[in-house]
Structure formats: C-alpha cells, structure tokens
Amino acid sequence: MLHPITHFHFLPSFHFASRFFCLNLQRETIASIILAADNNHFPFTTMNYKLTSLSIGYGNIVIAKNINATLEAGKMTCLLGPNGAGKSTLLRTLSAFQPCLGGEMHIGDESLKALTPQQLSKLIGVVLTERVSVQGMTVRDMIAMGRSPYTNFWGKLQDEDNRIVDNAIQLCGIQNLEARQISTLSDGERQKVMIAKALAQQTPIIMLDEPTAFLDFPSKVDTMLLLSRLAHEQQKAILISTHDLDLALQTADMLWLMGNHKGESTHESKSVLRVGTPEQLASDGTLPSFFRSSNIVFDEQELRFKVAK
C-alpha cells in the first residue's frame, strides 16, 4: 500500500490558451501533464528517497553503479560533478523519466517500480533547465498547472486548489508577479514561478536541474536561499543538480559528488558517488581531491575553491 503523500505535475484551468501551451511544453513536461489522471489525494507527509546499489545509464552502457545514498526530507542536497559524470542521467532516473539498470529506489517504504505514474506525479516534482516561453499565460495560470494530479480531466480548480496556489505564491514571495504574463518575466522571476509551480504540486520530493543556470549572481543567491528555506520550513527533500560550486558549498545541507575522484586508483571509467555534508567532505579530503587542479586550491576554513596564484 502506498504511504500517504502529496505533490506536483499539473494541468491549468483548461482554457484554449492552456491547451495551446501544453502542446508547446518540453517532452518531459508534457509527460508529467499526461500523468495527471488520478484524482485520489494522498495526505501530505515527509518522505526520504533511498537508493541502494543503484546502477544508471542507457541500454547496455553503465554510467555509474553501486550508488548508495538517501535524499532526506527537510534537507537541500546539491549534486555536483564535471560534465559527463552522469548527473543528468541520475536526475532523470530518480525522476522516473528513464529506468535504472539495476539496484533499488525507495520512496518511504515503497519501491519506485511498484508505483504508478499517477502515484509518482504526487510524490516527485521536477523543475527542468529549459526556459518556459509562452504567450497569453499569466504567472498564476502557470503555477496552477501544479495542481493537475488532483484535478479532473478538464483541470477545473476547486477552492482548496486555489488556496494551495495562493500559498505557493506566498512562499516564493511573488505576489507582485501573479497577474503578469510569463513572457514578460526575467530569468530570475521565471525560475521562482517554476519553483512555485512545483510547490503547488505538493510533492514531498522536488528535483531541479541547474535552476541557477541562466541567472545573474544576485538571482542565483536568491534562488538557492529560497530552496534551502523551503526544504527546512516545508520539510521537502530537495535535490539540485548544479555547477555553482561555491553557492552549493555555502547553502547545501548535503552534497552528492559524482565522478571519478582525482588521485583514486580505479580500473573502471564509471562514475562514483560520494555523500556527506560540506564540512565532512572538506575535512576528509574528498572535496579538494575531487576537484583537484593545478589552477585551483581549496580553502578548508572558508569552504571555498580559489584560483591558484
């Protein structure tokens, strides 16, 4: 039996403009909308996401194996690693966009393999890297799409759905944007809207693929602090794939480091995953060895990488 839970992927109040928008979403977003067929609600609770001896990759190609980690409720975890290490593959596997090659994934006590797409849409929320650009849709309409797992075929919002949308808008501090057109937003504003949409989906787990990729530095900081606050205050299990190393070290509760660690003796090219707090991975030498380069040095006291001079 599936443990109680709630949250994410959603259809708008189905006006023609909303239908047009759905046809122009990225493939994964369209898939998430199609998942919204089940109207049963799970009472919200917190959940951990546990990976045991997980192998990921494509077909017969294994990118990483023997992954053992837990994405914990109430914590923001940052997934770090060089390009090609398998971060996107791991994120897609955990988001159920592609199957694992081996091992187990459990949300609470439930195996991911035993969950239906409708159930998954209430457990895992995903914010992708791609910019969403659409004409004729307001910020509130976009955020309301997070309610699709809980609405009927026509996507009609009830009073409770509107209350949840209001709460998501307030949590992200974007009340002043509610009536704006999505097409008029800055990158930083748009990212907050997509985070609010994930909150409206009410999943205990939220995964974000490089949420700061297109943002200026103040917006990067705002976004990371917002996600950290949401993890702590809303008890979400949040996983962020990012290349913003210094920001991750300063804001993350936990780090997942993915890749072949420098200086390790290995006979395989497959990535490995190291897990710990920033302080733990700094003190045991993992961080400086993982990102070792003649051009950078790691300051353990400040938890920062600096350019070698």
Which secondary structure elements does this structure contain, and how are they paired or packed?
Elements: H1 16-23, H2 27-34, E1 49-58, E2 61-71, E3 75-80, H3 87-94, E4 102-107, E5 110-111, H4 117-120, E6 124-127, H5 139-144, H6 159-171, H7 187-200, E7 205-209, H8 217-234, E8 237-241, H9 245-251, E9 254-259, E10 272-276, H10 278-283, H11 286-290, E11 296-299, E12 304-307
Parallel strand pairs: 3-8, 3-9, 6-7, 7-8
Antiparallel strand pairs: 1-2, 1-4, 4-5, 9-10, 11-12
Number of H- or I-type helical stretches = 11
CATH topology (level 3) name = Rossmann fold
Radius of gyration: 19 Å
Q: What are the secondary-structure elements, in order, as H or E? A: HHEEEHEEHEHHHEHEHEEHHEE
Number of strands: 12
Which terms summarize this structure?
four-stranded antiparallel β-sheet; 309 residues; six-stranded mixed β-sheet; Rossmann fold; single chain; disordered N terminus; alpha/beta; globular
